[in-house]
Amino acid sequence: MSQWKVALLVILALAAGIGAGYLGWGATVAKLAPEVRTLTEEVERLRRELDARDSGANAGLQLWEGIGVVRAIYPQLLMITHDEIPGLQPARTTGFRTANGLSAKVGDSIRFVIEGTAAHNSVIVAIETL
Amino acid sequence: MNGLLYASLLLHVAACSLLTGASFLLVLAGRPKDEAAGRWERMALSASKWLALVALGAGLIWFALRAATFTGRPETALDPSAIFAAAIDTWAGKVWLIRQGLLAFAAAWLFLAGQPASRADWIASRWLLLTLSAAALVLMSLSSHAAAIERQLLVHWADILHLMSAGLWIGALPFLAALLFISSRDQETLQPFSRRALVRFSRVATLLIFALVGTGILTACHLVGDVPELVGTTHGRLLIAKVAVLVPALLIAARVRDMLAGPGSTPLSRRIALHVTVEGALVLGILGFAIAMMLSVPGKHGSPTWPFPIRYVPDPGAFPFWRTLTPQQNAIALAACGLFALGLLVSLWRRPRVLLAGVAASVAAVLAVLSWNGSTVQANPASYARSPVSYDVRTLDRGRESWQQHCPACSIDLARLPLSATVGDLFWLTGEGDKELGVPSLAAKLDEETRWSVAQYLRASATAATVTAGGGTQIRPGLIPAPDFDIVLGPLQLGTLSDYRRGRPVLLVLYSLPQSRERIEQLAKRHAQLAVYNVEIVAVPRHSSGNPIAELATASPALFPIVTEANGAIVRAYDLFAAAAGHSEFLIDPRGYIRAIWPNDEWRNADDEIEALAQQFLDEAPPDEADEHQTH
Amino acid sequence: MSQLPKFFRVLAILVSALMLCVGSASAHSGLKRAEPAANSSLKRAPAEIKLQFTEQLEPAYSSVTVEDKDGERVDNDDARVDPANASLLRVSLKQLAPGTYTVIWRVLSVDTHVTEGRYTFKVE
Fold it and tell me: Candidates 3.90.950.10, 2.40.50.320, 2.30.29.30, 1.10.630.10; correct CATH number of A62-129?
């Protein structure tokens, strides 16, 4: 085969090989990344439901634990500045409904347990003053 | 070990450049037309064979030494499996593998492919060599400094273009000289084949030099940053050396063009060859400096040592247009200026008097503009040094303690410290002492870190002194950086002040009860309204009590962060700036500077001003890297 | 053909000259920010160490360990480069008792430079 044909083949093979490899790898990673993320979240949610079930809650509910400071008290609601609650929400100041019989004073540092299905649908079920 | 690393990298890059340049010149010169040209082509090809092998070998040695630094054990350099693991596991290693592969391909082609039979064969063969060697050279920029720190695409492409132009120009020059020498042995005057090659190369080289200078300035702006880093760090000084050697090389190139272009000239081949050889040697020197730059800390991340006894300080508010440019726009503007200057040089080269007059006039103009907008002050090696201790309330506390301990009787008039003094200047001052200002020499009594804390404290006090003397609540931007502190609320660590103010203004309230209760109630109600302007409020009680949050329980709850730990240090630091004993408020802009202070009762008129300033901040430039370090 | 050795002679001279003038390629400055900060004193024990560097890191050769004053490891041996931020290195910690701890780090940046360092912090 004449030289120029060989040269052309070599360049084409290189370009095709590198290009295909790069694109293929990029496509695979892009496809797998969201899958991995959703699966990890699913696993964590199931683990929390399992923990909740073990401590006597109804099926489908999860338990979260957080540390925070009470900022304001309303009937059946506490405004708390809390650290990140993994699996629920990042650090912020927000209100939580409280189960009957639970209360705290403004300024208390507390460790609290939330039970529910999501951030907007949860109730504080235990409070421990630190 | 460093010497060996440098030598192997230099050999590798030089061989790659020469290989690229040889292929480039072979393509440019065209098929050999006479016997001398044929001899030259054969010489160039046989040299390329050896260059490819040298590039492969030196590349292997360089990476083996690098792998040893990865693991920290010198024996790794002799262990093939460890070297291979290092290559597979790191990005730089993968890039190296690809490049060695391309070089191996090129070497195989050189050794195995026979003589090209037809014109198509010749074209394909030479272009294949050029593509392979250019790719092997250019891919190195994927693991360079620019790739590691810069996220902007423009800088990456500038780096690639820079490497490519450098390789083509540096590599081709020795072979060009060889062509001229070889053909000069047959006939003294320039032969058509050599002349054509020379002319073509000259034209392309002009483009290459423009590309080199433009992309060089762009990457330099991003890796070096500013003048102190340029003259004060090894990286910057190597850059200056590069440019210094470039100038005579360019002058010789211009002279060669002249010799070709003169009317009716039949220049001596040997004479041109000598010129090109010297030019080639000079640019190989530039390559040496460039490799040293690759192995040193980028100027932006180093601590510059100022070498001159004076330095230039622009007036506050000078060059307002320049300050609105982002660093990227700045770099592009500088590159454009550089290219313009180069263009002028190239076109006026033949009229030296006009050129010299032009250069003198522009230098004079620049000096005039600079002196109109600023002044020179005394400087010392530490003027632009980067403080190893961060600017926060703990540092200021430590600085104050050490200062009062070692200089209790000092009656230094802080307002006499020049406003342009940087932290580095004050560090130097505390080291050497200054009888006139009444500063003792503390170099023997304190270690360097503590002296930096003292310098930060003195600087904060000096700026505070000018502010309280000036009067009025508003402070110009860039004058007083707000000392950083941790915002701790009970058991929660909510972050630092710099976390909070990233992208939004912070209203810092130092309060004491019972005077401030009214204001806290007002702020609690207005919290949501201020949030519209993205203003966050942070409250710090002046006294340490049991439970500030419980104490502060008001009718409408205050839901902004209230600092419960280390408030003493925060209060002491911010009291430097506001002579107040009760309530004081500070508005800090998103870049980290205090823009307004309302001591005592002035908070009653503050709210409108807060909203107006918050609106103004939206129009100002966002924070950049210089603000992060906050060394002024 | 006789011009070839001349070029290599020039090259050799340049190489040796430059080997003499280039000082040691000192380590990169590296660490931009550390959480918890160097020489800081914390009320509550941190759950992890976060180190922010000036350059992007190679995960395979970047590591950080935390030791107590007796030299015992108190981290969970899971030092990793943050997937969202290539210049952030984190390691999680066991429950720390009050005392002084040393953070020892050694990182490889993407442009093949190695930096190492250490600092201490206190838990009250």
Answer: 2.40.50.320
